[in-house]
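Example 9 (inverse folding). The structure is encoded as follows.
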């Protein structure tokens, strides 16, 4: 069970207890993937695990919006964030919806034939553009997109890039077969809100999802992830917040210079900034410079989550520039 994990050693799901075991059980039933590394890696912090799962479940899996449409959005986000693991996962899940041609089109980096799918894919890549969906669909679409802005960063920071052993997901027949194995679960209609009793934290729901299960889950995730700021000095936490708030969301973070602290001087701030702005650039040396006693796996997951939620907040701030399509 440790192979997908770059820096942590999560408790095997079969040994999980309490709310962690409850999340895994619900995940197996509703997601169809019993031991998804994306969530297992968060198990060192139950508040993060429960909130990240709740946001994904209530936005992507449940609700009234087409699952295919939401998977297209998630794929667009994952492409923008350079997360191969997540792009592969959404290709498989698009196969699970039965949209095999669409799945392979996106996997090849091409544009979907359907104009509405082209617009959703483009919006997933750049959420500052006008929203290509009606206001009533906003909580599910925006929740899905922001969920994967968070998850992409967790995956790129803490997991390997290989979704299946030997990179088998790169073979079309394997992607298709994996999708078909999940098709029954993907096509189920889920009752909304069933993940909310699992939450360990709470927070204010955003305006775009007020009064919905998506909003409750998002508020909980924001609260849980912000706890990671406590692992940094006030000065370092402020540096991370200010750097990400001023970021345009596109320009790569330089690996040298004043914009990125040196790992020998401010390793925690460096890790959190990389998690926010370029998680695919985190190196073994970056982690080793910070992850030493008294810090633990729990601390590393929380610190990465703090950087990730700061990036989510930056993306969320661009939504005010968008006008929903009538």
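The amino acid assigned to each position is listed next.
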């Amino acid at each position: 069970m440790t192979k997908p994990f770059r820096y942590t050693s999560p408790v095997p799901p079969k040994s999980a207890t309490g709310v962690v075991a409850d999340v895994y059980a619900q995940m197996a039933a509703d997601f169809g993937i019993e031991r998804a590394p994306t969530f297992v890696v968060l198990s060192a912090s139950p508040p993060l695990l429960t909130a990240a799962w709740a946001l994904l479940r209530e936005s992507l899996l449940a609700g009234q919006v087409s699952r295919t449409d939401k998977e297209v959005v998630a794929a667009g986000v994952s492409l923008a964030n350079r997360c191969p693991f997540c792009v592969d996962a959404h290709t498989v899940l698009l196969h699970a919806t039965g949209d095999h041609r669409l799945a392979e089109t996106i996997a090849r980096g091409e544009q979907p034939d359907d104009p509405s799918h082209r617009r959703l894919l483009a919006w997933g890549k750049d959420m500052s553009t006008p929203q290509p969906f009606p206001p009533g669909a906003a909580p599910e679409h925006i929740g899905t997109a922001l969920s994967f802005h968070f998850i992409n960063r967790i995956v790129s920071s803490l997991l390997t890039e290989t979704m299946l052993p030997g990179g088998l997901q790169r073979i079309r027949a394997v992607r298709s077969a994996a999708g078909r194995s999940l098709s029954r679960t993907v096509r189920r209609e889920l009752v909304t809100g069933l993940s909310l009793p699992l939450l360990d934290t709470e927070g204010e729901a955003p305006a775009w999802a007020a009064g919905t299960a998506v909003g409750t889950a998002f508020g909980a995730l924001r609260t849980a992830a912000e706890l990671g700021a406590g692992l940094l000095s006030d000065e370092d936490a402020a540096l991370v917040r200010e750097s990400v708030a001023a970021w345009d969301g596109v320009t790569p973070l330089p690996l040298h210079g004043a914009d990125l602290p040196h790992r020998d001087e401010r390793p925690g701030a460096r890790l959190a900034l990389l998690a926010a702005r370029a998680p695919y650039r985190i190196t073994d040396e970056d982690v080793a410079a910070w992850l030493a006693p008294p810090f633990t796996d729990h601390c590393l997951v929380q610190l990465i989550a703090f950087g990730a939620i700061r990036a989510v907040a930056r993306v969320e701030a661009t939504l005010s520039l968008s006008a929903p399509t009538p």
